[in-house]
Design goal:
Elements: H1 5-24, E1 30-38, H2 42-55, E2 60-62, E3 69-80, E4 85-98, H3 101-110, H4 116-121, E5 126-136, H5 141-176
Parallel strand pairs: 1-2, 1-3
Antiparallel strand pairs: 3-4, 4-5
Helix pairs in contact: 1-3, 1-5, 2-5
Length: about 180
């Protein structure tokens, strides 16, 4: 089976997440960094809504450092006419997965014969995961921000959560068995 470069990176990242979960004996949180830029006024609203919804999810911490995932958003007002009547928002959302220092060390444990160039390549690297473009009716901004957070949770955070939970169960089993 031949993998595309993106699929190979995702497979590698999933392997690393599993290794890190085993090695760290289960981080209690999944760290997500958000960044919103764009038209003044709307960017603060979007950032506030997205961060609020992300904080509602189990094991998720919104942070500026050592993030597992990063959500980068560009939001612009789309207007028409001389009066600049607002008709919609255009929102571009990009998800990247970051190799933390712990994941990089796990990579080197999983692949001890990795070349120096491979070690350097993954130093502080963010891997592209997804991009979506939304056209949002201004009255639906809150609902769309919730949808963006839920999509991030179901497609990217939940798989990490499952790996961590599996590692916790294995750890409990190994400590319970005499």
């Amino acid at each position: 089976m031949k993998l595309t470069p993106t699929a190979a990176l995702h497979l590698l990242l999933f392997t690393l997440i599993a290794a890190v979960a085993e090695l760290t004996a289960f981080a209690q949180e999944i760290r997500v960094k958000t960044g919103v830029s764009g038209d003044i006024g709307i960017e603060d609203q979007v950032a506030s809504k997205i961060n609020r919804y992300l904080r509602e999810f189990k094991d998720v911490v919104v942070t500026d450092t050592n993030a597992n995932l990063e959500l980068k958003i560009l939001v612009l007002e789309v207007t028409i006419g001389k009066s600049d009547t607002l008709i919609t928002y255009a929102l571009s959302a990009v998800v990247t997965e970051t190799l933390t220092e712990a994941e990089r060390r796990a990579l080197l444990r999983v692949y001890p014969n990795a070349t120096a160039s491979l070690r350097e390549y993954f130093q502080g690297r963010s891997l592209y995961a997804d991009h979506r473009l939304y056209l949002i009716n201004p009255e639906n901004l809150d609902a769309k921000c919730r949808l963006i957070a839920e999509t991030l949770d179901s497609q990217y955070i939940e798989p990490i959560r499952k790996v961590i939970e599996q590692a916790r169960r294995r750890k409990r089993k190994s400590t319970e068995t005499p």
